[in-house]
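Give me the 3D structure for SAWADEE domain-containing protein.
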Amino acid sequence: MWTLRKRLQFTDDEIKQLEVLLMEAKDEPKDTKFYQNLTTKINLASARTGKKALQWIQVRRWILNKKKHLLTKEKPNGSISDKLGENQPKVEFEAKSANDGGWYDVARFLSHRFNDHCQFECLIRYENFGTDEDEWVIVKEAVRRRSVPIDSDECYRVAVGDHVICFHEMESNACYFDAHVMEIQRKRHDIRGCRCRFLIRYDHDSVQETVSLERICCRP
Ligand SMILES: [Zn+2]
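Predicted structure for SAWADEE domain-containing protein (220 residues):
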C-alpha cells in the first residue's frame, strides 16, 4: 500500500470548504451519513472535476486526523479547537492500526482475548473514530503510552537519533508514523515560535522528509 503514498489531493478550496462545513455542522452527529453528505458536496465542487472522486471514508479519516493534528499543536489561546467546540483530548495510550501502520490515540479498551498464538489482544476504540473502526491489536506490539507533542520553546528536547512519531499526509489518509530524527537545523525562533527544521526518516519505508516541530511528537 505504501506505493500509493503521495500528497493528499484535496485542493486548498476543498480544505477551506471542509473547514466551513465542519464549523457549521459542529452540533450535528458525526455519523456515516454526515460524512457521506459532506463527501458528496466536496465531489460536486467544480475544483474536483476531472479528478478521481473522493470516498467518504477518505474524507472522514482525513478530517479526524487533521483535527487531532491541530489539537496537538494548539496554543492556550488557540482558536481552532474553540471553533470546533472541543478541548484537548486526554489520552494515555496510542495503538498501531494494521490497516495503515499509523499510530492513533486510544479512546477505550473494549475487550481482550488471547489469539491462537497465545498473544494478548485488545479491542480498541480509537479516539474520534466510530464503532466500525474498532480493531483488535496485539498489545505487546501495537499498544504503548501516547506520544507527546512538544512546545515550541522545548524544541531543544529533540535530538538526533530520537524515536518520534511524525504526522504525514497521503492521498487516502493522514496520520502519525514512527520515525527517527536524522539531522536538525537549529534556527532562531521568532514570534511564530520554533523555526527549526528536522530531517526525519520514516521507519516503515526509510523515506526521509524535512519537517517542522509541530509535526513531531516525542516518545515519553
Ligand atoms: Zn526550535
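Residues 53 and 177 are 26 Å apart (CA to CA). Let me know if you want a second pass.
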